Amino acid sequence: MRRVVFNQKGGVGKSTITVNLAAISADHGLKTLVVDLDPQANSTQYLLGTDDLGSGPTLADFFDQVLNFKLNPRESSEFVTATPFPNLHLMPSHPDLEDLQGKLESRYKIYKLREALEQLSSDYERIWIDTPPALGFYTRSALIAGDRCLIPFDCDDFSRRALYTLMQNVQEIRLDHNRALSVEGIVVNQFQSRASLPRRIVEELDREGLPVLRPYLSTSVRIRESHGRSKPMIHLDPRHKVTREYLELHEALDRLHAGA
């Protein structure tokens, strides 16, 4: 199972959602891989901290190899690194991904990530893919490589208006490149249950029949603390309200997977 977490808007919690759901998969005993395609490397820092960045092969090295022929190319597994958490591995990001993007687009290397993840699928029961906040080369590569797509949604009118465009973009990738791809659901993030605007917007999404997942993820300062300590919530504070919401969301996704 390869899930892509995608939204063209920044600051909606893509990396936070990716890492916390992946950490729960791993904590449940599933061999799990996080693929961090965002040059900002937020998922990488979340899992490894800043001290370990750049200490081993990254996705920038993988895509550089894609561009430049080598007599003895590295296997896909050589771009994977362990994290401090059992069953949880990472294909780390690197800022150099930004500079490689134009060359990769011009040489149409859009299927190379899918090929690499297909090689790794026998080693991992769950693969979670974090994407940049734009529909560029890396996001398209992720959607071509994925089975299902989760769309984080942060309950404002700008996100509301952009949502149908996002879903149309996913549908276009599905029709042109990846018939297996589907929008698994919309993840409501940073939800404030006492505020009227978020409640109204989510109710509108429900009325329109969009696949809004439950539970909604609450806003909490504890999430920022987990970023700073490079510990997903399941490891930092297993009993916290937000951790329980993530656990319930993971369970809901498992039910959708079982029913597919």
Order of helices and strands: EHEHHEEHHEHEHEHHHH
- CATH superfamily annotation: P-loop containing nucleotide triphosphate hydrolases
CATH topology: Rossmann fold
Q: Strands of the biggest beta sheet: in what spatial order?
A: 3-4-2-5-1-6-7
Q: What radius of gyration results from the CA coordinates?
A: 18 Å
**Percentage of residues in strands:** 5-15%
Low-confidence stretches: none
Tell the overall outline. Answer: globular
Instruction: State the total count of DSSP E strands.
Output: 7
Overall mean pLDDT stands at: 93
For the biggest sheet, the summary is: 7 strands, mixed
Helix-strand category: alpha/beta
Approximate helicity band: 40-55%
Number of helices: 11
- Number of domain units: 1
Our measurement of the CA-to-CA distance between the termini, rounded to an integer number of angstroms, reads 12 Å
Top CATH class: Alpha Beta
